[in-house]
Amino acid sequence: MTRPPPAFRRFVAIDWSGARGKRYAGVAVAECAAGDEAPRLVTGPGGWWSRTAVFDWLRTGLMREPALVGIDCAFSLPFAVAARGFPGRDATVFDLWDAVEEVCAGEPDFGGAPFAGHPLHGTGFWHRGPQPEWYDDPHRATELACRADGLGNPQSPYKLIGSKQVGKGGLAGMRMLRALRAAEPERVAIWPFEDPAPGRTVLTEMYPRLFLKRTGFGQRKIRDGADVDVALARLGSRPAGLTGAVSDHASDALVSAAGMRWLAGRAEAWTPPALDGRARRQEGWIFGVGMEG
Questions:
Q1: What is the pLDDT, as a whole number, of residue 2?
Q2: Could you tell me if 138 and 156 are in contact, meaning their C-beta atoms sit under 8 angstroms apart?
Q3: What is the DSSP string of 205-238?
Q4: Cα angle 223, 19, 74; round to 5
Q5: Which of 158, 126, 161 is nearest to 140 (CA)?
Q6: Which long-range contacts link 49-54 to residues 24+ away (Cβ below 8 Å)?
Q7: CA 204 to CA 72: how far, in whole Å?
Q8: Per residue in 114-146, is it b (16+ CB within 10 Å) or e — as a string?
Q9: Would you list the DSSP string of 244-289?
Q10: Residues 104 and 111: beta-carbon distance below 8 Å
Q11: Do residues 162 and 97 lie in contact, with contact meaning Cβ atoms separated by under 8 Å?
Q12: Nearest to 77 by CA among 9, 148, 154
């Protein structure tokens, strides 16, 4: 990107889930306006979010005004492995999204699990049991940069083992992003694959742990309203004013919404030194990672 990013007046953070079901306790949405206004939680239909409900809410929001949206899911896969599914082609992330949709089209609510079981595209996934000898834990450059920054250890999307696995959430997110881009091609840009442009909502991959680390919470989860306000203050935000227990999904969304606003005006967040052609075409980048090289 050669020009400064557009100014946003609205910031959204989405804590995502790849679980199977109709609605999920693990999905939370928060938004805030420009300035120092406190972020607020957005309640899903009937008090719960499905992935389809998130898609509908985002699409409706596109009609209001452009926003910077962060979603806590991998927007792509490590292409050292994913490229095997496209023999003889120099595939892009959009080819990958098309393949995920083709394989998973019958799965409700943007579910992505069938892709991991596909005979061609699914061969790199570790599904169960002890680590196979062939599995070498592939990562995208942005995940390695996240580790180098001391911001945590993002799991490989190809590791579908344990409570911290992120692969199914990433595949579901790819389906949702593809659908949003197809439905509103003139209103959205998916960063860093597409440059931000005036009048467009920009969707980015986010990592909530980045904001928790930068506000002094390290590897701890925030589960108390007072701690949410401590983190918000360190991101230049007024307090949310919540009291008592808060789910870590809600706190991740609230703190990340303020964090997205805090990062948005920093040119280095949009142009990290390691953001190369492969990241722009195939693997993507976590917003705010690797800003100092």
A1: 46
A2: yes
A3: E--HHHHHHHTT-TTPPP-BHHHHHHHHHHTT--
A4: 80
A5: 158
A6: 49/23, 49/24, 50/22, 50/23, 50/24, 50/109, 51/16, 51/17, 51/24, 51/27, 51/109, 51/110, 51/172, 51/176, 52/109, 52/110, 53/23, 54/14, 54/27, 54/29, 54/176
A7: 9
A8: bbbebeebbebbbeeeeeeeeeeebbbbbbebb
A9: SB--HHHHHHHHHHHHHHHHHT-HHHHS-TT--HHIIIII--BTTS
A10: yes
A11: no
A12: 154
Tell me the two tokens of residue 61.
């929001």
Burial zone of 42 (CB within 10 Å; 0-12 exposed, 13-18 middle, 19+ buried): middle
Give residue 1's pLDDT band: very low, low, confident or very high (50, 70, 90). very low
Which amino acid makes up residue 199?
G
Strand segments, DSSP code E, in 83-235 are 188-190, 201-205
Distance between CA atoms of residues 211 and 33, nearest Å:
18
Mean pLDDT of the chain: 94
How far is 216 from 233, CA to CA, in rounded Å?
Answer: 11
Only one residue has tokens 């938004």, namely 31
**C-beta of residue 121 within 8 angstroms of C-beta of residue 98:** no
Q: What angle do CA 269, 183, 41 make, to 5 degrees?
A: 55
Q: How far apart are alpha carbons 109 and 98 in whole angstroms?
A: 16
pLDDT at 4 (0 to 100): 60
**Residues 167-217: tens digit of each pLDDT:** 999 999 999 999 999 999 999 999 999 999 889 999 999 999 999 999 999
Q: Which residues contact 116 (CB under 8 A, 6 or more apart)?
A: 122, 125, 127, 160, 167, 168, 171
Q: Rounded CA gap, 99 and 94, in Å?
A: 9
Tokens of 252: 């991740």
